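Appendix B. Raw example, untouched.
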Amino acid sequence: MSESPPSPPPAVLTFAATDPTSGAGLQADLLALASMGCHPLSVVTAITVQDTAGVESFLPLDPDWVADQARCILEDMPVAAFKMGLLGSTDIVTVVAEVVSDYPDVPLVVDPVLSSGRGDEFASDEMISAIRELLVPQSTVVTPNIPELRRLAQAEEDEDAGLAEYAQRLLDTGCEYVLVTGTHDSTIEVINTLYHRGGVLRADNWQRLPGSYHGSGCTLAAALAANLARGLEIGDAVYEAQDYTWHALESGFRLGMGQHLPDRLFWARERDGDDER
């Protein structure tokens, strides 16, 4: 009697820009999704020229090309989760929002990449408004750092309403959860807080690692999308994604002259080390 073939891994479709360093962007998503037990699918939204020190330039694709990439793959295979990264233009935000609106039952993780770690700007005010009005309301989880949260919440420059208030503004648009990451805060430990309409669902403290890392936000959002695709409940999905990301950063390495790169396959190298012993 022949054995039945194994079930395929859940597929996660990421919309992101390329990053030649594989530290962030599309390549980082593919590494993280595969590492977390999912089959990664990809839609290229923009092409970047960058290294570990920063982004020199980026070229958004034609919005129709972005939509066609997504429609083609979605007509061919089932997708268990969506993940959004750098989208590149207001028009791309619009077409991507139209695509995912046809799949309201598929979890959507939005990583609002508005600038690089060096401060290179990726999003105009018009594009931020489009993300807030078209994508955030459809999302399962939005994963901003504190500067991104303030911009999405349309906080005034001198306003200090508090993270809970800014998160509530996003929740009021219709998204289910907001995971605010504390990497840009001045706290001794990194505190990541998950908000929902009833308040704080969970807050997790992590040792603040030395150095600067390229792609930590991409890693966290991709890992979270993978966990949702695998059927984890939101609290467990968020914790497991943070744990994976922290270990990827702890095991990170510096190949270039700029930021460290997360090691998204740290578990494989740990296993290799065990075998050698």
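End of appendix B.
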